[in-house]
Amino acid sequence: MQQSPQGKPLPEITDLTRPFWTAAYEGKLKVQQCGKCGTKNFYPKPCCVECGSRDLKWAETKPRGVVYTFSTASLVMMNLPGWKDDLPVILCLVDLEDGPRLYAQLTGCAPEDVRFGMPVEAYFEKIGENIGIPKFRPAPAG
CA-CA distance, 81 to 121, in Å (whole number)? Predict the structure, then answer.
């Protein structure tokens, strides 16, 4: 398993997923959008989840959303030294403002302060050569 410069495992990059990771490296949040019905898909798939069309293009989506649900990991990742300084890690499902639901890490917030429906915004961390990852933090008020 390859590791990032931060000592964390890197995602498996395939031809199907590469546009997502490259966009994140460039500071953009992109998801697949169906050319037939307009549905935005995440995670990357060969066919639209709604209509089955293979006419999928990568489209930039707003990097904002709300927390749908979340979980806190404190012991599971103890075996990976790269996560030591991040513990506890808040993992959440984010309902994007104009897109699908995305699984991500929430930072900049204590676990006890996370709320369902809490507004969040994406930021991007470079984790390898042409590989970035979106993470989320609480959105500023207003």
Answer: 27
For residue 132, the tally of other CB atoms under 10 A from its CB is 19
Condensed to tens digits (0 to 9), the pLDDT of residues 25-66 reads 999 999 999 999 999 999 899 999 999 999 999 999 999 999
Average of per-residue pLDDT across 87-116: 94
Q: What 3-state class would DSSP assign to 133? A: strand
- Tokens for 31, please give them: 């998801």
Contact between 66 and 95 under an 8 Å Cβ cutoff? The reply is: yes
Q: What is the DSSP string of 11-68?
A: PPP-TTTHHHHHHHHTT--EEEEETTT--EESS--SS-TTT----EEEEE--SEEEEE
Token duo for residue 48:
């639209």
Name the amino acid, one letter, at 124: F
pLDDT tens digits, residue range 61-86?
Answer: 999 999 999 999 876 555 677 777 78
Can you give the residue ranges of every domain in the chain? 18-137
In this structure, the number of other CB atoms found within 10 A of the CB of residue 24 comes to: 23
Q: Which two tokens stand for residue 34?
A: 């169906």
Q: Is the pLDDT of residue 142 over 80?
A: no
